[in-house]
Amino acid sequence: MSSPVQQSAHTRDDRNVPSDLWTARDAEAYDSPDDPMFSPELLERTTLFLAELAQGGRALEFAIGTGRVAVPLQSRGVEVSGIEYSPAMVEQLMKKTKTIPTAIGDMATTRVDGEFSLVYLVYNTIGNLYTQDAQVECFRNAARHLRPGGRFVVEVLVPQLRRLPPGQNAVPFDVSEQHLGFDTYDLVSQRAISHHYRRQSDGSYRYSPHNYRYVWPSELDLMARIAGFELEGRFGDWDRTPFSSESDSHISVWRLPES
C-alpha cells in the first residue's frame, strides 16, 4: 500500500487555490462529541447511504478532513481514499487510522491513482471553494476519478437568504455564552463569510472567519452537466426524505453515463 499521507504532484500552487487553509489549531478542535454532526445516529445513516451507492467499489472523499465520515464508512467494508487541503487535518486523521490513503491538495485539481465507484463531498464543503470556476472544476475532478456509471454525492445547505432582513447583509446563526456566529453575504458574487467569536477560558474571545461560496441546487445541476453527469436523485436528508422548497439542505446524487 502506498503511504497514507501523500503530496500530490497535481496540486496547484496554494496561492491560486480559492479556499481557506485550516490550521493546526482548527484541526485539533474540529472533532467535538457535542457537535451534532458527530452523532453516531447521523453517521450511521450517512455511511449506510454512501455504502449502498458504492456498490462494493472504491470510494473517494473530497475534503476528507479528520475522517468523520471516512473512518466509519471504511468500517462498513468500503475501501476509502481521500483528498484534503489541510495537512493539519490529515495529521488528525492519521491518529485514527493509517489505512485510508490521503493526498494533500485541493479537491478541484488534485488527482489520486485508480478508479472509483463513488466520490462524495459532505457537510457544505463544496462551498469551501469560493469561486464558481473552482466549484465547476471540482465536478470535473470528480468525473475524472469515476468509472462509467459511478456517482458523485454532495451534501450542502440550501442558501438561507430568506432569513436575510431587507437592507442587511448579516444573519446570526448562533448566539450563546460560548459562541457568537453570523454570516455576511455578497449577493452578487455569492461569496459569504461565517464569522465566529468563541469564548476562551480566560474570558476573552477568539475570532475566526470562514470564507465560502453558497450555491443553489439548480446551479449545481448545471455544473454537473458541464462535467458530464446526470442527476440521479436529490433528497432532504440521508434518510432519503423527499427534497422540497422547505428543505434546509440537500443530498444530491449525480451519475456518469455508462458509455
TrEMBL record:
Biological process (GO), any one: methylation
Pfam family, one: Methyltransf_25
Chain intervals with Basic and acidic residues compositional bias: 10-28
Sequence ranges assigned to domain Methyltransferase in this UniProt record: 60-150
InterPro entries: Methyltransf_25, SAM-dependent_MTases_sf
Stretches for region Disordered: 1-36
Gene3D superfamilies assigned to the protein according to its UniProt record, in alphabetical order: Vaccinia Virus protein VP39
Residues making up the signal peptide according to the UniProt record: none
Keyword presence, ATP-binding: no
Molecular-function GO terms, alphabetical: methyltransferase activity
Keywords recorded for this protein, A-Z: Methyltransferase, Transferase
Coiled-coil ranges from the UniProt annotation: none
Protein name in the entry: SAM-dependent methyltransferase
Organism: Microbacterium immunditiarum
Lineage of the organism: Bacteria, Bacillati, Actinomycetota, Actinomycetes, Micrococcales
